[in-house]
Each structure stands twice: as C-alpha cells, then as structure tokens.
Amino acid sequence: MTGVPSYFEEVRCHASGRWDQLEQDPELAGPWHQLFKQVQIPRHVVSELLQNADDAEATMATVDIQDGDFIFSHNGEDFIEEHFISLCRFGYSNKRALHTIGFRGIGFKSTFSLGDEVRLNTPSLSIAFRRKRFTEPVWQTRKGTSDSNTEIRVAIRDDYRLRELEKNLEDWTKSPASLLFFRSIRCMTVRGHEIRWEAKSPGPIAGSYWMALANDPDRQYLLIQSKPESFPEEAFAEIRQERMVTADEEASFPPCKIEIVLGLEGRLFVILPTGVKTDIPFACNAPFIQDPARVKIKDPETSPTNRWLLERVGKLATGAMLEWLGHKELDVKQRCKAYELLPDLNREDHSIAGSCGRIVEESCETSLVEQPYLLTEDESLEKVKGCIALPGVLLDVWSSDQVVHLFSEGARPILSRYVGSEYRRKLSNWNCFDEIDKENVLDSA
Ligand SMILES: Nc1ncnc2c1ncn2[C@@H]1O[C@H](COP(=O)(O)OP(=O)(O)OP(=O)(O)O)[C@@H](O)[C@H]1O
Ligand SMILES: [Mg+2]
Asked: Which of 368, 390, 414 is the endpoint of a domain?
C-alpha cells in the first residue's frame, strides 16, 4: 500500500482487536450498539460533519447529492494521527475545548444513518468504514487525484433516507442560523445553493455585529458575543463525568464564549439548534450539555453547567442592553431598541424550556438591580421608579417640561416617548415605573 500514513496500521489493528473482543462478548457489545443506534439520525449528519469541519478550521463546506451518493467536502486541515485515532474509536474524543458540542466522539458515526459504507478522502487518507465494524478503517486505492479538500461520501441506502436528507438540506437553506455560530465556516453550499453570512456593520455595543445573509441583505440580525469565561468547579466536575474522562486523564477545558442573536426566536443552540425553544426574545448559543440524542439539553435544575451558562446568557443580555441604552451617540430611537433584549416570561411554565427561560430572566433581574435603565424624555437613564410613564398623546400637546410640571408628582422625569408600546408593556410588567393612564390624566392634573 503506497501513501499509507505510518500510523495507519497500528490504529487499524487496535480497532480490529476491539471488534474481535466485542464480537465474542455480546454483553460488552450491547451498549456500543445501543449508542450507535441512537446517533443514527439522518437529519443530524450534515450538522455533525459541519461541526467536525469547523473544528478542523474549514472556511467553506459543500453538500451535495450526486448519482445516489451523499457528498460532503470542506477545505479544513487534513487529519493528523491523533484525530485519526479518535475517528477510529467510539465514544471517545480528542477534543477538549468546549466551544462546540464535539466532545463525545460519536458525531461522525451518524453518517451510517445514510448507508452501510462511509468513505473518507483527504490529502493523506483514503479509507472506508463499514457498518458491521464501524470503527475499523479499510484502506482504499485512490481513484483519480484527490484535491486538498476532505471529502466524505456515502451511497444512500434507500428512498426514505434520501427524503430525510433532502428535507434536512432544505432546512439548512431555509434556516441557516447555526452557520452564525461556527468559528471558521462562513460559507456553505447546499446542492449548488450558496449560504453566506456577512457582517454588515458593527453593532451598537462592543463585540456585536449586524449580520445578514448574502441573499437577504435587508433582514439583519444582531449577533452579540461574550468574552470567554472559565467554567466553575461544579461544571468541570459535570463535564468530566459527561465526557467519561477518568480521574487520571488530563482534562482542562478552556474558557468558553457564549452568543445571543437578536432577530431569531428564543431557541437554544449548541451550535446546532436544540429542541428547546424558550420565550426569551433572542436565540442563544452555548456549550450546553445535551442528552445523547441531542434533542434537548439536560435539565438546568440538575445540570450545574447548563444553569451557569443560562445565567451567563442573562448577564450578557443585560450588559448589552445597558451598554446600548447608554450609548449617547446613538439616536434615541435606536437606543430604545435595546429593550428588545429584555425578557418577559410566563414563569409558571415548568417544562425544560420554561426553566431555561426562567433562569435567564432571573439572571437579568439580578444584573439589573440598582442599574439605571429607564430612558427618559431628556435622554438620560433612571433607575426603577425613577420616572413615570404617561400616554404618548400628552407629549404631542405639551412640552416634556410642561408635562413634568403638570402630571409628575415630585417632578419625576418621564419615560421617553420613543419607548414603543411593546417595550413599554414589558417594562410595565417588570414594574419599573408608575403609569398614569388616559383616565387618570385628568385626575392628576
Ligand atoms: N473533517 C475532519 N478533519 C479532521 N479531523 C476530523 C474530521 N472529522 C472528524 N475528525 C476527527 O475525528 C474525531 C471523531 O469525530 P466525531 O465527530 O465522531 O467526534 P467528536 O467530533 O470528537 O465529538 P462529537 O461526538 O461531539 O461529534 C474528531 O475528534 C476529530 O479529531
Ligand atoms: Mg464531531
């Protein structure tokens, strides 16, 4: 075999030996097959491969279906020995950074949900994996010349899988939000259709950007990123357990960033969308700990990591809202838009989504204590109860000074007329100010 990397045979032997062992001991093999089955979800394949491509620092990825084959390729780095070892194991990952979900060492195996043989071509490797021994690589003679890309190819087994895959590719083209959260992939081509996010302009606060899809430049989303922060000890303990890292194994996880996106529904992302849709007014991305099927996230009531991440989401949103509101160079109407970040939830919802939302909102509440965040007519910021709200029509008739004089007991400033009704309702639910409604105007005058 020419061109076979020196490490290949040892890795192959190790995988093969493991299968000999498993085939002799059904009790040992049971949990493997069970976990393998759990990741056989056709709609996860593209996401998992994108995830790995992003980890390999690809900037673009292409997905296509040609002559019954699923083909995924990316321009990231080629495999090195350590990555290959990890690819030929199951339930073990060389990845330690928690910026992505990539940590269980099972994602790649989801490709078997499309067919029985998965072929991998990279500048240094040309191999196939077969379902029966799904971690054992089989060296392939290279057909034609390979370019510098990494390509994964699977012959699609039947129409059902083809349809599932087609549906998923359609979802990607319709809602490509995840692409916002990848670290290096910015462009993805799905069956010839290019999806590309572009940063249109810096956002109203540090570390934020107005983003838009290249084919829909007028619809803009605000992406807000946090600074990296180290996990607290109890989260470390949970992550170690989740990743099956034994005590003697070196395990240090670098600080992680989180992100929120205003303009998207309140779904939680772990790069990819999870099944947790909250009522918070923005989407968030963080390395939440998920269930093995990666549908939901672990209940934050029992997962200290998830609780900590959700609290950070609240702090990030509040910090962003305060900075945005305090941005005096901005037009006051623009400053008012900061209230979009304020959640206003039904706290009686006891589902996982409900508790996630509640933790975010409670964290916002804690971060807002004693902070001035009520934008007034004179464009300054007041603390809770530091201003009053009056029907907007009054301000069309009188000047703000007159209105203060006439209607505001103790000459408290008045909430800016540019705080639209929806934001005003939210602030009112937060019990931020005293309100004089139309009926009471005459009484108080
Ligand atoms: N395109 C790629 N380029 C380089 N290495 C890769 C690539 N795809 C996979 N790998 C390697 O194969 C390993 C196994 O991938 P796999 O997706 O199964 O697990 P993982 O990404 O570590 O964790 P997860 O289960 O969360 O996906 C990765 O850790 C990585 O080292
Ligand atoms: Mg992966």
From this structure: 368
